[in-house]
Amino acid sequence: MPEWDLTKKQIYKLLKHPFQKEKSVIEEITSAYLEFVEDLFDHRNREHDNKIRIKQLNMSYIDFGTIKALEETSPTENSKLKIIYLDKLLSLLHTEQEPIYRRMEYPKFSSI
Known about the structure:
4 helices
């Protein structure tokens, strides 16, 4: 099974960080977000067990959702930026989950 450890992803480390960061971190967060998207797509193509994929996507969704909730309850100067990226990540994860759920629900009609 290919490894999917969200805590090792740079985007997770940057968004989880509780302290205020300098404005220069915008480029770093953007870069980490794009890297995460590529990693997610690569992982999707490597992992073919839908149950494992759903579990990993759900755990990632929960972890990013928790970080977002913390950012919203204890805002810092950079919370708006973090919340924007967290919303993007949550939308991406949700978008990745939907086709898997459909394939699991209707395997007869799945072309993948």
